[in-house]
Amino acid sequence: MSAKLTLVKLIQKEVLPEIEEYMDELFEIVASKEVTQEDKAELVEIQELHQEFKQMLVDLEADEIDEEECLEIIEEIKEMRSVND
């Protein structure tokens, strides 16, 4: 499997669903009115991250990201996820 296809599947099947689940949790905190400025800032950051990954899918579809960059992004995602575990 190519690095591009691996990256697309990783983003679609794992990264975006995880981000969306976390966004839902943050929205619940906001709705509970027990929200802190930190929570609000975290929500903004996670929404931006979500948008960046969606744009990455568009860029991959347009063939704007090469195989080497895909491999680097996959490694960055793995590192990011291991830090958050």
Biggest β-sheet: count, sense, barrel?
Answer: none
Proportion of residues in β-strands: under 5%
The number of strands is 0
Number of domains: 1
Structure summarized in a few sentences:
The protein is an all-alpha fold and 85 residues long.
Structure write-up:
With 85 residues, the chain is mostly helical. It has one domain (3-84). It is built from three helices and no strands. The chain has helices spanning 3-31, 37-61, 67-84.
Features of the shown structure:
85 residues; mainly alpha; 3 helices; 85% helix; 0% strand
Element layout with pairings:
Elements: H1 3-31, H2 37-61, H3 67-84
Helix pairs in contact: 1-2, 1-3
